[in-house]
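My current task is to audit a protein record that another person submitted. My question to you is simply how this chain folds and whether the tokens agree. This is what I was given:
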Amino acid sequence: MNKEVLKQIKNLRPGDMIIIHWFDAWQREGKLLKHPSQADYLVKTPGVFKEISGKEMPCLVMVTERPPTRYILVGIPLPLIKQIEVGGRGFTHMLRAYEKEATNARSRLKRFRGEER
């Protein structure tokens, strides 16, 4: 990871709207790769920065939106990040929406299991 990315990560605050450019796993059917450079698959993932987490493999954790109104957490290992674009600050409402949705999901799961009375 380059120094510019590390600097960007240190300057991120929870609620920052970001786009992460990172290398993801890939799958290929049929022909084998002709050149090793074809193995790199660059992905752009938008979301709202939440935190850096993890001991063995530190990850950038962010909340992304999945239609219609579902929020999910995404963890991207720091060594896989090539670039970060910051689109704005103060999008903490998405972090609160995720927390609310996660709390509701846990409550529904407890009711389903018969743990809530």
Q: What stands out?
A: Strands lie at 17-23, 42-53, 59-66, 70-77, 81-88. The chain has a mean pLDDT of 82.
